[in-house]
Amino acid sequence: MDVKDQVAEVIKQIKKDPEFGNRFKSNPAAAVEALLGVDLPDGVVQHVIAGVKAKLASKEAGGLAGKIKGIFK
After folding, report:
1. Fewer CB atoms inside 10 Å of the end CB: C or N, the chain?
2. Rounded distance, CA 14 to CA 2, Å?
3. Orientation of helix 28-36 relative to helix 3-16, angle to 10°
4. For residues 26 and 29, what is the distance between their CA atoms, to the nearest angstrom?
5. End-to-end CA gap in the chain
6. Kind and range of the H or E element at 43?
């Protein structure tokens, strides 16, 4: 499983399980490793965490952009 697949798996779990989302917020490395069932090297887990945060931020920004766009209709 590559980093992209790992990011997708974490995003899926965050959407499915709010408790997992809270664990990710408080300790992202432990949450990722527990979900994936492996002890990842620090560099890899940091890439996964960064990817998840970027995806979540882009989805939030997309929703915000839609709301702003709706204001001007």
Report:
1. C
2. 19
3. 100
4. 9
5. 44
6. helix 42-71
Please state, in angstroms and rounded to a whole number, the distance separating the CA atoms of residues 25 and 28. Answer: 6
Q: Tokens 């990722």 appear where?
A: 32
3-state secondary structure of 63: helix
Per DSSP (E only), the strands in 17-60 are: none
* Six-digit token string for 10: 């974490």
What average pLDDT does the segment 54-71 reach? 63
Return phi, psi of residue 21, to 5°.
Answer: -60, -40
32-36 long-range contacts (CB < 8 A, ≥24 apart) are 32/6, 35/9, 35/10, 36/1, 36/6, 36/9
**pLDDT of the residue at 60:** 67
- The whole-model pTM stands at 0.77
**AA letter at 15:** K
